[in-house]
């Protein structure tokens, strides 16, 4: 086994390799650290000792609310089951090493199973005590948090505890499922029925036909046929369970940068906080391949990495996350307010932060809907880039997100055609990006141009655009169009309760009425709006994070006027 810790072992089963043989040993030691004796003694104060017989289960895949376990003597074997339902051990933890990963910070179903490798003595730290441990013993908390993040990365890379999505890679439904799993950091593997030679046997084995695709093969050989995101999330235990009768102090609608920041600050300052998110943490930023202007990340950070960290941070402080659930209405006639969800449930809260951001604008071209997700994309992450690799692609739009997408895609596609309606990029894009685009030999800029025709079969195969000045039409064999022409606010669900501006963004501060004490207060007392959804806001990650952080002060004043 690669790594500095000779007591941490992976199975020598050939198909299961160490998490990453190329990683430096330091990373291995950080993924499966051994606490010092002094640290182990401190952890012992939070838990109780238990004896486990050889192969006695410690926890099983699918369990929720699993406790934190540290090995005092003996070992814990972490395993997944193979296609024959046989356990395949891929990590053995020994003295002063601990089990667990990110699901210890939430109530989702755990992805893998654990058993005692031999007669063992384990320290069990109950979840409430575990939270106390990581916040009180900061040095241990840091080691645990880093290990948990690295373990999730390993699970994703090796699809331990994951699912298999079977379907044509280019179909919009396959993409929808894969995007959801990727953006929620759920380990998965795609079996592309158009190209993967394994796929036929797989379909026969489950008696599936092409008409059933895509399907998700979940643990226990359960087959989910073209599930909705909510069905899949529920089946995989990604949705947290919580008491719907509970009244939260704060409900945050939307888990983009602004909503996650509100959740981190709200939960860390003692507010019982819940976040409701229809898709995945990160919002628009989660779809950005690289954010280069966020303070503190000189080499840039992918939106998904930023969002993943923020999510864990919010959950570490006790925020709850209701994923794959959309808010469809706000009942503002009674207090506490009630948010209506698309599954018919309601969530009640004394204060609400609206952080639902915006959704992408579309092009007005025949057959547009047909190719959405099958050649028309709104984000340029590694996944979309892989679908267009080696062919040509168009980026439509002249803002920074379009510029980033063009530069990123140019690394893997044959050529990027950048279409803008105006004369150029200078007025709409940061100068550093304009220069990169101008210098890049595989990017060409086409001013005064718009897409006028699309062609293809199940996927986009060719695109025609027209130069509005000359009327000249150009057709190229492109397999992807990246549409980045701005966005509209996600506020339909709040109409009737909150004052909106002419474009539908939420009015706040002075714009919302004379009686408000915060620039983020809406026309309803106790309801605030932050980030892109707020009328007049600066549409940036940093400003959304800033607004989400400071709004919590106003919420404290509202919930607790005497103390204020
Ligand atoms: C491709 C791309 C690249 C970008 N790059 C940069 C960059 O480099 N630097 C920068 O500063 N900015 C960048 N931006 C802009 C930045 O991402 C946004 O300004 C920022 O994400 C806004 O954050 P937000 O939390 O206000 O809203 P959003 O990010 O839009 O998040 C809103 C969230 O609310 C959820 N939601 C919506 N409606 C509902 C509902 N009814 N119920 C439940 N949930 C709902 C959505 O699913 C979403 O997750 C980029 C944007 C894109 C699209």
Query: Any idea what the radius of gyration is?
Result: 25 Å
Task: Characterize the biggest β-sheet.
Answer: 7 strands, mixed
Overall shape: it is globular
Structural class: alpha/beta
First-to-last CA distance: 58 Å
Helix content: 25-40%
Mean pLDDT: 90
Percentage beta strand: 25-35%
**Contiguous helical run count:** 14
> Uncertain segments of ≥5 residues (pLDDT<50)?
1-21
Number of extended strands: 28
Could you say which small molecules are bound to this protein? flavin-adenine dinucleotide
Gist?
The protein has 564 residues and is α/β, with parallel strands linked by helices. Helices cover 26% and strands 25% of the residues.
Write up what this structure looks like.
The protein has 564 residues and is an alpha/beta fold. It is globular. The model is unreliable at 1-21 (pLDDT under 50). Strands 12, 13, 14, 15, 16, 17 and 28 form a 7-stranded mixed β-sheet that branches. Flavin-adenine dinucleotide binds at residues 253-259, 276-279, 283-285, 287-288, 291-293, 326-327, 355-358, 379, 401, 404, 490, 493, 531-533, 539-542, 544.
């Amino acid at each position: 086994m690669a790594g500095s810790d000779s007591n941490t072992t992976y199975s020598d089963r050939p198909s299961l390799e160490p998490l990453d043989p190329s990683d430096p040993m330091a990373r291995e030691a950080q993924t499966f650290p051994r606490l010092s004796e002094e640290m182990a003694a401190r952890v012992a104060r939070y838990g109780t000792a238990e004896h486990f017989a050889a192969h006695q289960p410690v926890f099983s895949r699918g369990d929720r609310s699993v406790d934190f376990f540290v090995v005092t003597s003996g070992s814990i074997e972490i395993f997944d089951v193979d296609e024959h339902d046989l356990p395949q051990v891929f990590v053995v933890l020994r003295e002063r090493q601990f089990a667990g990963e990110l699901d210890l910070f939430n109530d989702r179903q755990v992805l893998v199973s654990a058993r005692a490798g031999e007669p063992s003595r384990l320290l069990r730290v109950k979840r409430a005590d575990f939270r106390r441990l990581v916040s009180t013993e900061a040095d241990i908390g840091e080691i645990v948090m880093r290990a948990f993040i690295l373990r999730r990365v390993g699970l994703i890379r090796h699809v331990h505890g994951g699912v298999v999505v079977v379907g044509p890679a280019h179909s919009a439904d396959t993409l929808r499922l894969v995007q959801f799993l990727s953006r929620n950091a759920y380990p998965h593997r795609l079996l592309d029925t158009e190209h993967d030679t394994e796929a036929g046997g797989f379909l026969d084995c489950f008696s599936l036909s092409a008409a059933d695709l895509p399907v998700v093969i979940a643990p226990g050989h359960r087959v989910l046929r073209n599930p909705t995101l909510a069905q899949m999330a529920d089946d995989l235990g990604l949705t947290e369970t919580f008491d719907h009768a509970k009244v939260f102090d704060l409900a945050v609608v939307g888990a983009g940068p602004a909503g996650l920041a509100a959740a981190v600050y709200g939960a860390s300052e003692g507010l019982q906080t819940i976040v409701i998110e229809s898709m995945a943490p990160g919002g628009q930023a989660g779809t950005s391949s690289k954010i280069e202007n966020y303070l503190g990340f000189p080499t840039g950070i992918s939106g998904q990495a930023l969002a993943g960290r923020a999510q864990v941070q919010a959950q570490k402080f006790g925020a709850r996350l209701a994923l794959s659930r959309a808010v469809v209405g706000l009942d503002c006639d009674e207090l506490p307010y009630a948010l209506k969800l698309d599954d018919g449930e309601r969530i009640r809260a004394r204060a609400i932060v609206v952080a639902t951001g915006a959704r992408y604008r579309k092009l007005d071209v025949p057959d547009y809907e047909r190719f959405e997700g099958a050649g028309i994309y709104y984000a340029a992450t590694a996944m979309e880039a892989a679908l267009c690799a080696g062919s040509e692609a168009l980026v439509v739009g002249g803002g920074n997100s379009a510029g980033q997408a063009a530069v990123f895609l140019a690394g893997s596609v044959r050529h990027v055609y950048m279409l803008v309606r105006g004369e150029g990029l200078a007025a709409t894009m940061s100068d550093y990006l304009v220069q990169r685009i101008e210098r890049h030999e595989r990017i060409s800029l086409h001013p005064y141009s718009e897409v006028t025709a699309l062609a293809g079969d199940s996927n986009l195969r060719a695109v025609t655009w027209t130069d509005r000045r000359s009327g000249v039409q150009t057709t190229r064999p492109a397999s992807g169009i990246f549409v980045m022409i701005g966005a509209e606010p996600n506020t339909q669900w709040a109409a009737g309760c909150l004052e909106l501006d002419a474009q539908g963004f939420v009015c706040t501060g002075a714009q919302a009425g004379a009686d408000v004490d915060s620039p983020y207060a809406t026309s309803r007392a106790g309801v605030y709006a932050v980030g892109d959804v707020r009328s007049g806001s600066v549409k940036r990650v940093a400003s959304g994070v800033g607004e989400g952080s400071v709004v919590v002060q106003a919420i404290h004043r509202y919930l607790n006027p005497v103390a204020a």
